[in-house]
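User: Can you predict the 3D structure for this chain?
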Amino acid sequence: MENIALIESFSEFKDDKLIDRVTLMAILEDVFRNALKKKYGEDDNFDIIVNPDKGDLEIWRNRIVVADGEVEDSNREISLAQARRIEPDFEVGEDVSEEVKLIDLGRRAILALRQNLISKIHEHDNTNIYKQFKDLEGEIYTAEVHHIRHRAIILLDDEGNEIVLPKDRQIPSDFFRKGENVRGIIESVELKGNKPTIIMSRTAPGFLEKLFEQEIPEVFDGLITIKKVVRVPGEKAKVAVDSYDDRIDPVGACVGMKGSRIHSIVRELGNENIDVINFTNNEQLFITRALSPAKITSIKMNEEAKTAEVMLKPEEVSKAIGRGGHNIRLAGQLTGYEIDVYREGVEEDVELKEFTDEIEDWVIAEFSKIGLDTAKAVLEQDVDDLVRRTDLEEETIKDVMSVLRSEFEE
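Assistant: Here is the predicted structure, written as structure tokens:
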């Protein structure tokens, strides 16, 4: 088989992988040099001439003519008699270039060469995919659901690249069908072996930030800056925004008339409740805004310890804490302060951790998850509501309330 015929038999790789001819020929040269090293022990006395336009290459072995019977290195030297079979006028000491046909390497070597070529092309292809998606980290990407597994959804983009959307990167309310388009951000790209693993996320704060860039022109144009995003995926999010142009109301521009601008973002995130907040360097004011919709009576701050004690009227406490404790937790993450809520006018209260002799730690932890850290905070709640908001049974909650009431009856 001539060189060009063998090379053309490899064209399927070029077509399948969309590799240009020049790149394919470079890979071929590298593969052939490895084959030459394996057969002859070295390749530095071989010239490989590549012709990308014709899709052909030539291999020439260069040797020195020595007297008959004096050949010591058959790869680098050729006897005078052998040289004169190529050209009758060769003399001792002259250089001889002889073309090597691929078929001369032997059938086994050609099969190994073909396998090596497949490996090199896959490696080249994977490297390009890795570089392409590494540049897209943190950016929004859309792909189609190809396969639904228990722990992840496998997506394919228009070029057939596989993208993984793990279960823990999906919004709890997400439900996808095969063939459906999914949006998320490219969270990470890693090379495992030679194969790139591309991870998509819909739960990362960056996804919400990029949705703001896509849907709100002032954010895309840089007129409004997103300072920080915190979220409980599918439940609640807080976004701090700022503008260097006093004529622009950043919150109003992001939300739109009656929420018209933010509506598509909320829908994309499974009706996630999004609070858009004006950023300020005044930390006390920022905490006040972050605890919205609750109205704060006063704040006592410790800037060094990054703690804030917030006083509210009793009817505002549940608003500050929010369902499942999400509001106060996100406000703390947004501002960087540990926020404690106190009821105005309540002089005496006891923290739940003081009852560890009578109430198990895991039960106290369940109340803390929803922002209830004191005895009176628990006693003010409805039993049925606590059953719904915690993983505690009604009997357990009633027993806890009985213990807490006895504290104030003594």
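The chain has 16 helices and 15 strands. Residues 107-134 form the longest helix (28 residues).
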